[in-house]
Amino acid sequence: MIKKELQAILLLLFAFSLKAQVEVAVTDSVSFSEKYVDYSDQLLIKIMNVTKSNKLEILNVNDAQSLKLAPLGTSSLGFGFNYKWLGLGVAFGLPSAPSKIEKYGKTKRFDFQLNIYSKKFVVDAFAQQYNGFYIENPAALTNWTASYFPQRDSMQTFSLGIGGYYVFNNKKLS
């Protein structure tokens, strides 16, 4: 628990030390295009702490029992960049403590993200792969008293997603 609190404090300190915007003096005689500073030609390199989860639930409709599966850990460490209209990011699961692996099993995680932001189009795409899950609710299914959770090391998921927008008022949107 202390490790997560330390990560959160470090991320907050790091986030408050960065400035992503610049103040621009605005007067009534300044046109819309002069109110904004264009940084699209600047390279942004980033280190990310990504928190995602990929839980699954299988419901037996005949007897209303459900099997809940979850991966170990939700934090990943990654890196990425943005330049002009293109952004890429890759994150890998952080290692877990041996005691957690013994109790919940081992999970390997990989996340990839692609962003394209032009004046007229916005496209976001991702790919995620999780290997290794544990059963979160064994006591709801059987008389389970062990100190560890049943593990499904061979179970894996792979997810792909894409979303996009067309900006109709792209001449007025910054």
Description:
The protein is mainly β. It has helices spanning 2-16, 98-104, and strands at 43-51, 56-60, 65-70, 75-83, 86-93, 108-117, 121-135, 151-166. The longest helix has 15 residues, at 2-16. 9% of the residues are buried.
Give the SSE map:
Layout (H helix, E strand, L loop, with lengths): L1 H15 L26 E9 L4 E5 L4 E6 L4 E9 L2 E8 L4 H7 L3 E10 L3 E15 L15 E16 L8
Antiparallel strand pairs: 1-4, 2-3, 3-7, 4-5, 5-6, 6-7, 7-8
Index terms:
elongated, 8-stranded antiparallel beta sheet, 174 residues, mainly beta, 13% helix
What's the tally of helices?
A: 2
For the termini, the CA-CA separation is: 41 Å
Give the oligomeric state.
single chain
Per the principal axes of the C-alpha atoms, what is the gross shape?
elongated
Largest sheet: 8 strands, antiparallel
Say how many strands there are.
Answer: 8
Approximately how much helix is present in the residues? Answer: 10-25%
Mean pLDDT: 82
Give the low-pLDDT segments. none
The topology string of helices and strands comes to HEEEEEHEEE
What is the count of distinct domains? 1
- What is the structural class? mainly beta
- Nearest-angstrom radius of gyration? 22 Å
Strand content: 35-45%
TL;DR?
Helix content is 13%, strand content 45%. The protein has two helices and eight strands, in the order αβββββαβββ.
